[in-house]
Design a protein that fits this description.
Helix content is 32%, strand content 18%. Helix 4 (132-145) runs parallel beside helix 10 (374-391), helix 6 (197-210) packs across helix 7 (235-255) and helix 7 runs antiparallel to helix 10. The protein is globular. By secondary structure, it is α+β, with helices and mostly antiparallel strands. The protein has helices at 21-30, 54-59, 87-90, 132-145, 190-194, 197-210, 235-255, 300-312, 317-320, 374-391, 414-422, 425-431, 433-450, 456-462; strands at residues 35-41, 47-53, 63-66, 93-98, 104-105, 113-121, 148-161, 214-219, 225-230, 259-261, 275-283, 342-344, 351-353, 363-365. Strands 7, 8, 9, 10, 11, 12, 13 and 14 form an 8-stranded mixed sheet that branches. Strand 5 and strand 6 (113-121) form a beta hairpin.
Length: 466
């Protein structure tokens, strides 16, 4: 496939981010940018916004969108506004301010195009408490007030599948360069990844052009299931990168007439897809990991962080597993966790402590699914750890055995998960009462929409038998 010529990243500064409108003007001029995509991530992690000529953007870089963009469901519906917000207010404009540190090119665009992630504000200057990026910033600020900084490293699993234009048909693995679809399990297979070399070359080129820092690419358990690991860093920056990477791999796949999907359980007989979050906390002044003491041993803070995750992850399950499909991944005897047990290098537990040096001691949250909003997943996971730290909680003993056969400790479905969030005063206080109320209303509306669909299972077993 012929590749478009991309701007030289050394023309003006780095491929990603500037500090001001003036720098953005120079940056875009050097790359011949003619259009700019201005977006704000919604509750589902979908970018909502406007595409405008660069001249219009430079003449007034703020953008107006209605508050209702944060009430929209994944199917395009809206929950009843009763007890949430006045319908007039829902349609009133917010002010979207660009975060110039996110400025990057759109490498797959036909014309030279840039993109910018925006933050949402009320007209009186208050941040919009429903905006997922702001929810994450609020949690990060809670850590900052204690003199801490959170460090995260996401791992995102996804499937490559044949194009599927009729939702009544199941998904199938795509044809690779050998001319054959993948069959069987090919965990960690280099050859299986090489089947899609051209696609991944485009993915890496697109990522480099946007300043996305991919660490590793591996083949996961499922047929044409892959995993991308991102380098560790600041929570908001890494959430931005996950948000952008999801779009990047979808676009790269489409160039090769393949779909990339982040559905939690896209194929019935294949493993689900996760978004594992590695987490550590450092002292803001010294940069030292507070999970390790001077002798390299785990600290009380390390155990309290784990305990907070154990106690509160069930209450944020509707964020970690946001759709009906998400719960199909969480089954007994699979590698997806069904409880909040923890252990040292134990992948069967919901919380894993990977082997590491004391400076890199961290906790891996293996519960979230890859369909989740990265801003909200990281915010929710860090919120649970924060509550454990400030409440001085103590965890259970580490599990050395297989956790897959133990009892379910996580909600089994979306409605149960939403109820757990609504009843947790602690989570509401950390994530924000208005956010929790709106989020649960949106998810309830999505569930109601799902219930209007009659599944093949119902026709198969109920049509003539009941």
């Amino acid at each position: 496939m012929s590749k478009k010529k991309r701007p030289d990243k050394d023309v003006v500064g780095s491929p990603r981010g500037v500090t001001s409108l003036a720098e953005a003007k120079v940056w875009m001029a050097a790359r011949g940018i003619t259009e700019i995509e201005c977006a704000v991530p919604d509750l589902a992690g979908v970018g909502r916004g406007k595409i405008m000529p660069v001249s219009k953007f430079l003449s007034g870089p703020t953008m107006n969108l209605p508050l209702s963009v944060f009430f929209q469901t994944i199917s395009g519906d809206y929950p009843p506004y009763d007890d949430l917000v006045d319908s007039v207010v829902a349609d009133s404009d917010l002010v979207m301010e660009p975060d110039f540190s996110t400025l990057a090119v759109v490498p797959w665009a036909q014309d030279p195009t840039a993109q910018l992630i925006h933050d949402a504000y009320h007209r009186d200057g208050r941040p919009v408490e429903l905006a997922p990026r702001q929810v994450l910033k609020n949690v990060v600020n809670l850590y900052a007030k204690k003199g801490w900084k959170a460090v995260v490293a996401p791992e995102i699993e996804f499937y490559l599948v044949e194009p599927n234009t009729d939702a009544d048909y199941p998904l199938k693995p795509p044809i690779g360069r050998s001319g054959r679809p993948e069959i069987g399990r090919q965990s960690y297979s280099i050859q299986a990844v090489n089947e899609f070399d051209a696609l991944f070359e485009d993915m890496y080129d697109y990522s480099e052009a946007q300043g996305l820092e991919i660490d590793t690419l591996i083949h996961e358990d499922g047929a044409a299931q892959m995993e991308i690991n991102l380098l560790h860093g600041d929570p908001v920056t890494l959430a931005d990168q996950v948000y952008l990477f999801k779009r990047t791999i979808r676009e790269a796949a489409l160039q090769h007439k393949i779909y990339a999907t982040f559905m939690a359980k896209p194929i019935a007989d294949e493993p689900g897809s996760a978004m594992h979050i590695h987490q550590s906390i450092v002292d803001a002044e010294t940069g030292k990991n507070i999970f390790s003491d001077a002798d390299g041993d785990p600290t009380p803070e390390f155990f309290s962080f784990i305990a907070g995750q154990q106690r509160y992850l069930p209450a944020v399950m509707s964020i970690l597993a946001p759709y009906v499909n998400s719960y199909r991944r969480l089954t007994r005897d699979s590698m997806a966790p069904i409880n909040v047990q923890w252990g040292y290098d134990n992948r069967t537990a919901g919380l894993r402590v990977p082997p590491s040096s004391p400076a890199a001691r961290r906790v891996e949250n293996r519960v979230p699914s890859s369909d989740a909003n990265p801003y909200l997943v990281i915010a929710a996971s860090l919120a649970c750890g924060y509550l454990g730290l400030v409440e001085g909680l103590r965890p259970t003993d580490p599990l050395e055995s297989d956790a897959k056969g133990l009892d379910f400790e996580l909600p089994r479905g979306l409605l149960e998960a939403l109820a757990a969030m609504q009843y947790s005063e602690e989570i509401s206080n950390v994530l924000g009462p208005s956010f929790v109320k709106t989020y649960t209303a949106v998810k309830q509306q999505e569930f109601d929409t799902f219930m209007r669909v009659i599944s093949p299972w119902e026709r198969e077993y109920l049509l003539l038998n009941v």
